[in-house]
Design goal:
Blueprint lengths: L4 E3 L5 E3 L3 E2 L5 H14 L3 E3 L7 H13 L9 E6 L6 H15 L6 E4 L32 H13 L6 E4 L3 H10 L6 E5 L7 H9 L3 E5 L5 H4 L4 H4 L8 H10 L3 H10 L3 E3 L6 H8 L8 H8 L22
Parallel strand pairs: 3-4, 4-5, 5-6, 6-7, 7-8, 8-9, 9-10
Antiparallel strand pairs: 1-2
Helix pairs in contact: 1-2, 2-3, 3-4, 9-10
Length: about 325
């Protein structure tokens, strides 16, 4: 039987396929979460910056109230935003996010970006975004070490069962591992055939850090943001290699892209408003790609990164 979960170094099991809440509209979020739970999803990947945690929690509460799931059946993920990296802000904002979700703990709480930005009081603006003084990004003074030690307290105090990181490169991870008393359970990164990041994936997995991929479909999500680079890049759904493999297996290109990841022990968090595609996206563990097919898909790598902060106009070149 193929595994549908990834065992984290914290001892907990994380579903290998989840539902990502990035760009899920507030007016539909509760229904989408509820319907995804009915379809079989158990992992939901949220964040302060997405601005829809209240609505996501409403969908969860509805499913629990109707007896579809229990809280312990779900794996709920959220992230620490950049403006809350100072030690004294980490736990309070985590508690606020838990309150927004209407739950007592996160299964996984992640540092969203390795960037400290000047604090913005949630009472003044929430979520605060990147700009904190007009059209300026004012960086903060918190080090990754300070932030991570505060994250460790979040886990020790029972607010999160596991803690992790996102958008960290190998050098930052090496540095973090020197002082971490609790090793990151997961690393969430942009990962698709145009950006395979094979060296980073291998290094993290060798350190016992599970990988979660976001933007598994490459330029698809970013075309919705009118990103020129995404419009200039051919869709993976239409790539001849992907299409040929999909036809051979009787699957959709989306399923092939997700299976390419999960077959290499990389968790995925796609989303869809379509009930049929919701079910299809879950069906990415019970069949296998051939070794040559995996290699052919990996061979599409062009090191194209879409979720680069400079692409949004933020002067934060963290991936250079």
């Amino acid at each position: 039987m193929p595994s549908t979960t990834v065992k984290l170094n914290s001892g907990h099991q994380m579903p290998i396929v989840g539902f990502g809440l990035w760009k899920v509209n507030n007016d539909t979020c509760a229904d989408q979460v509820y319907n995804a739970i009915k379809t079989g999803y158990r992992l939901f990947d949220g964040a302060s910056d997405y601005g829809n945690e209240v609505e996501a929690g409403q969908g969860v509460a509805r499913a629990i109230k109707e007896g579809i799931v229990k809280r312990e059946d779900l794996f709920l993920v959220s992230k620490l935003w950049n403006t809350y990296h100072d030690q004294e802000h980490v736990e309070p904002i985590c508690k606020k996010q838990l309150h927004d979700w209407g739950i007592d703990y996160f299964d996984l709480y992640i540092v969203h970006f390795p960037i400290s930005i000047k604090y913005v009081d949630p009472k003044e603006r929430y979520p605060p975004g990147f700009f904190n003084e007009g059209e300026k990004v004012i960086t903060g003074n918190a080090t990754i070490q300070e932030t991570w030690q505060a994250m460790e307290k979040v886990q020790q105090h029972g607010l999160a069962r596991s803690i992790g990181i996102s958008n960290f490169n190998g050098q930052l991870i090496m540095d973090l591992l020197r002082y971490a008393k609790i090793k990151p359970a997961t690393l969430q990164i942009e990962h698709h055939p145009y950006l395979t990041q094979e060296g980073l994936v291998k290094f993290a997995q060798e350190q016992g850090i599970a990988i979660t991929a976001y933007s598994s479909f490459g330029p698809q999500s970013f075309r919705e943001l009118n990103m020129k680079q995404a419009h200039d890049t051919p869709l993976l759904f239409e790539n001849p290699t992907i299409v040929k493999i999909a036809e051979k297996h009787g699957k959709t290109p989306a399923q092939v892209l997700l299976r390419w990841a999960t077959q290499r022990d990389v968790a995925v968090i796609p989303k869809s408003n379509n009930q049929g595609r919701l079910k299809q996206n879950l069906d990415v563990t019970g069949w296998d790609l051939g070794r040559e097919e995996v290699e052919a898909i990996s061979g599409l790598n062009q090191n194209i990164r879409f979720n680069d902060l400079v692409n949004y106009g933020f002067p934060l070149p963290i991936f250079v």
